[in-house]
Write a structure and sequence with these properties.
This protein has one domain. The protein has no helices and four strands. The strands form two sheets. Strands 1-4 form a two-stranded antiparallel sheet. A hairpin with a 5-residue loop joins β2 and β3. The protein is flat. It starts with 13 loop residues before the first strand and ends with a strand.
Length: about 50
């Protein structure tokens, strides 16, 4: 299996992390496997 390129511009001072779930605004957790993915890409600030 080959790694796919993500066309996400990552600003300076941020990093790309992958999480197997996200929490929706109503408080429920949505797991990536529920929609056929392995993880969700998230852009977060770099911690110092």
């Amino acid at each position: 299996m080959t790694q796919l390129k993500l066309p996400l511009p990552i600003p300076e001072g941020y990093q790309l992390v992958f999480r197997p779930w996200i929490t929706l605004k109503n408080g429920t957790k949505l797991y990536a496997r529920q929609i056929g993915k392995r993880a969700f890409p998230l852009i977060v600030p770099v911690s110092k």
